[in-house]
Specification:
heterodimer; A: alpha/beta; Rossmann fold; eight-stranded mixed sheet; 12 helices; globular; B: alpha+beta; Beta-Lactamase; Heat Shock Protein 90; seven-stranded antiparallel sheet; five-stranded antiparallel sheet; 19 helices; disordered C terminus
Chain lengths: 277, 735
Amino acid sequence: MGSLTTSVCKIGNTEIAYFAKGKGQAVLLVHGITTYSFIWRKIIPHLEKEYQVLGIDLPGCGASSKGIETAFSIKNHAFLLNDFLDKIGIQKIHLVGHDVGGGIAQIFAVRFPEKIFSLTLINSVAYDFWPVQPIIAMRTPIIRQMAMATLDKGALRMIVRRGLYHKENLTKELLSDFWNPMKTKEGRKAFLHFAASLDNNELLEIEDKLHQLRLPVLVMRGDADPYLSAAIAEKLVKNIPGAKLIRIPTGGHFMQEDEPEQIGKELKTFFAAQNYE
Amino acid sequence: MNDELLSRLQTLEQQILVLTEENALLAERAEDSLLLGLISENIQNLHDQIEIFSSGLEQISILKGLPFCSCGRLIGCEIEKIVSYASFSDSINIGYPIKISEEVLTDLKYGPILLTNLESLCCTFDDRDFQPAAAVLIPFKSQKITNGVFLFIDNSADNERFASMLMLLNHAVDMLVSKYDNIFLLDALQSANKKLEQRVTTRTVELTRANEALQESELKYRQLVENANDAIFVAQDGRLVFFNEKTIEELKYDKEEMVNLPLLELVHPEDRDLVTEYYTKRVNNDPDVPATYTITALTKNKEELTIQISSVMVDWKGKPATLNFARDISDQRRLEEGLHQAQKMEAVGQLASGVAHDFNNMLGGIMGAAEMLRLYLPDDTTAKKFHQMILEAATRAAGLTKKLLSFSRSSKQVSTPVNVHDLINETLILLENSIDRRIKIKIDLKAANDTVIGDPSQLQNAILNLGINGSHAMPDGGTLFISSDIAELDNLYCNYSTFRIQPGKYLNLEIRDTGVGIAPEHIGRIFEPFFTTKERGKGTGLGLATAYGTVQQHGGAITVYSKLGAGTTFQMLLPLADAGAAEKSVIQVLKKGKGRILVVDDEEVMRLTAKAILEELGYEVVVACDGREGLQIYLEEDAGFDLVLLDMVMPVMNGRDCFDAMRKHNPNAQVVISTGFSKEEDLREMKEHGLAGLVRKPYLSSTLSQTIHDALRQGADKIPPLSGGTQPKVPTDTP
């Protein structure tokens, strides 16, 4: 299936590929590492009837620019999101981030709270609980596995499979969607550059501001996510005032594949609740 | 309890630590294997040399976490980039120019180097992107790159990690270089193959063209050889190894029989020694061997062919052989023989006419004297009887002479339209009465036109002779066929013929018998006078010779075909007369007369006979013994003669010269020529110059009287009397 994006928005030298479906309040979906916009394909149908659903490929991912001259740090990505929204004329969004996308969403929310209806973090990174350290990034097991996965479809399959609760959902097509960016040298390098650019410090920096957020926050946790600790979700909900936690026992790291209907339903309910209030 | 638990916990933690370390080591080993496996797998499908290095460097960089991996050529201390992979940059020339120190350059000769102090490595990275901490250099040599180096730079100062990686990197480089060489060699091989294919294609085209040209050429030569009118064959070791169609055709063998046929089997036994001798000499380069010679060859049916052979030595399949061109000249030989025969006949004819001339003169004397004798003979029956015998014998002898003269074309010939069919029918009566009754005669006269100009008696004689000749060939009976039709002869036939014939319509007469035939050795001689195979006394040997002469004189041709035991066919070709040819007949009448006549003849007996006859007839006669004396008398008497009877052939001043001299003195001189034979041209010319008459020797008095009478009367009609000479006395017609 590949990227769902149909349009391109140019910011500086970077081309951001995105899609926009449906009408209504804007919902921006931000993917994490190893995935791109395709990961939302099963969620969109639940939202597009009532919302304008926007999804992007982060730089270095999917159909967006693969140039590595600028750092793919999550902070940079957060500012890029803001530029992107300005460029396409969207003022306020329901922001949904998955994995590293969740980290970006946190920085965006802290920096541009006025542009947000609500914030949803799905199996999100946060604080320094995730196994990424600058400089020695490639030495950490998960990043080494990712490196291997860029060259070896078998290694990638292992990563994806481990991230799914319903292992039987790992079809050839799904693996192909994950593998697509690794097919080109540029794709591989951009992916690894993205991984290498990750820095826990950027999230530690905003910890205080995050806890002061006065926004509707939903934290969704797949209990079967082997990559990210449950402590992350727990700490977020505990420290962000009014944050709501939804645990999905049958959700792996890529739980959009495991339980799309539940996620879609919860999102709809959550977004609607904000409007109702 | 708590202490115990704590101790166990510590032990377990210890064990976990050990296991984690082992796990990390194993994972690293797995990664190394994966790396080599990936490199191996990936380069399998790559065919571009740069792509191989590029792909390998990327894999090393990613899996071993080495930010900068490059390879290049060493130009002195400088590394000239071939390809690089930098995980931190898209710039293709990142880090370059890169230089190494002299020491490193020297050390590289001995193998890979790990540099932890980068002072000896000078490169140009932006510090913000990358800070080099350690480097590994691995030298390599390949087909195209004699002084290559792989360069791996890490931004970590963990020397132990790099050192442990060295073996793997060396391995990976070996694989990449080997593959690089393979591709190079494969490319070279493919390029060589392509060139070879091109050369093969080009050569094939050339060969095909050459082959076509060769085939065309071969076809041309084969056509030349196969359509040649000569037999062309190659003989080697005494056998036929090659021959053309004409050879088969002429020798009448089957093609299969001819192959390797011993050459001498084709040669008449009499010529075999000659052929062998020439062959041996030719092989030995003996100059004394003719290039062309003639032999008799034998066909499969043992028929003889006269063959003219031209031979040259050639190389045939690596061995000496003779290339021979053979021409069947049998026909040419027959023609030559025919011509030779014709020439011989001409000579014989001249001889015969010479004999006949003398003989005629003598007969003239005998007959004249005998006629004179009659006047003096008493009416004694016995004397008269003997006198008659002399006259008859002399007349027969004169007939024989006539035949001889006829053969030699010198006798007088009558020229009149003759219906040959009538002549044949008349002759048939004569034949039927004179030949064996067991011989049947069949006549088939188909010719629509049977009129020829000629002498009927000569023609009849010829037909009769041929008929008789045929009947003699059938002693036990048989059939004699006489047939006629029209033959139209063309130039070719006429040129081919040994007879002087002109193209046109001819009456073709065939006289064929079913007799014994003529032996081949005789066939060339049958037309010779006096040639006979019959017993002595049974034939004169003049019959066929006369027929030959007759046909020749009539402007025709005669040929003979014969086969022993089967019979003989004579073919006479006579030119047909134009329609409406004038009929001409001459009636001889005995006349007495008056006048003064000069008789010039070198033969005394003829002189005296003529004098006697003419005086008997009433003329006054003066005689002269040769042309010179005759002319002298004529001049002395100032042409005082009414007529001159002039012999044609005389040893001193012949009749022609004498005639001319007399006519010069007196243009109206009346001259009658008496001759046994003369060239028709001479006579015609003399006639044109006023010859008054001609009398053939031997002549009878009646003939002479008529000729003299006619001449004198003609002269009286045309010529005014000569002044100063004796007035010619016009003879009066007295029967």
